[in-house]
Amino acid sequence: MKEVVIIDLGIGNLYSLKSAIEHLNYKPIITDDPKILHDSNQIILPGDGAFKYAVDIMKKKKLFEVLKNLNFKKKKLLGICLGMQLLLNNSNEFEKSDGLGIIPGENVKLKEKSIENESINIPHINWRHIEFNQKKDGITKVIEKDDEFYFIHSYLAQPENDKHLIAFYNYAGNKIPAIIKKDLAYGFQFHPEKSAKPGLRLLNQFLKL
Length: 209
Hints:
This protein is of the alpha/beta class. It is 22% helix and 31% strand. It has an eight-stranded mixed sheet with strand order 2-1-3-4-14-13-12-9. Strands 6-5-7-11 form a four-stranded mixed sheet, covered by helices on one side. A two-stranded antiparallel ribbon has the order 8-10.
């Protein structure tokens, strides 16, 4: 059975993700061991909570530099929710903090106003259709027109280069990145493991390619 490494930062409940991976007939390895991370070819970085807190945990566990320096032209990485935001260069959440810099960009707070200048709810918690900014690739080609994905977040991962923005959703007129990518490093702002059949289909496609 093919193994999938899930990075354990000790924040957030990994049960749903572990169960989803097992359902897809893969073996989840939940770990904070830098050597296991270094040797893996399929890595998932999940996360909930604050950006800098997660970075501090990664540095304390000696995972930060290992992950930062892996070759994602050969290894696959999926950042989920906060994990997607951590792929970028930095964040201004509470205080400035450096990220992994795997995909150039910045983590910024969601706008609190619609394009009509009306107040909108933050954090954003909802199921959303996504739209494509780039041509679908071998992983995202399984996303169908009517698919919805589950989002819960207060910040967004804004890539520096538009070529790294694969898909987005519209929130009160604001364009919110939903999928980002550079080489084999992907970020999903939504939770595929909590997005029913469309999420499992997408997660499976990521793992099998």
